[in-house]
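Quick one: structure tokens for this chain, please?
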Amino acid sequence: MSVTEKIAQFAKDWFPTWEKPKEKSLQQWIESRIARYSTRQYDWNALKFQADFDPKYRRAQCRYIGTGATGVASDTNTIPSEHFTFSTMILPAGCEGPLHVHYDAEEVFFVLKAQKLRLFFELDGESFDTLLSDRDVVSVPPGVFRGLRNEGQEEALMCVMLGVSKPNVPDYPEGHPLMELRKRRREIAAAGAAAEAAKKSSAAE
């Protein structure tokens, strides 16, 4: 029985990226699945539209496996994601990740460094908040609104994992300014796409 057949026997799913390409040695294949910190860059633009709306939402993402749920369409400098995404996030002192919800994935936050990181949650009229610090972890089920605020004096650093290969962008509470901003951005994008389609159609006539 081949390695592929053995994996197929025990694994629920099978992905082509799990099979060593015939043209690559083991070293080449494994090296292609290593994302070294020295080759990463923190992306302050991934969520820039939020920070442009309000500077308190300023934060940066460093991608390792997949692109996460920031809305970044693709990143060739990451390991392919099949079951989950993995990134790290910098949250400057006084800044926050707004209250949001994922309906398609569990989200995990593992705190690497934080003096006073407050996480807050909402579900069906109930609310709860708690403080996390170094090496604390929380797993947030789908459907629960969650947000976080760095109440410490120094920047916070955490790992973020989402339990699907390509998460949908999150929703915000109805009436939240960022939800209204997203609606306007989508309307502008749709209008731009319609104008571009009309321009191409006119040129083809």
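Helices lie at 3-10, 26-31, 48-53, 177-204.
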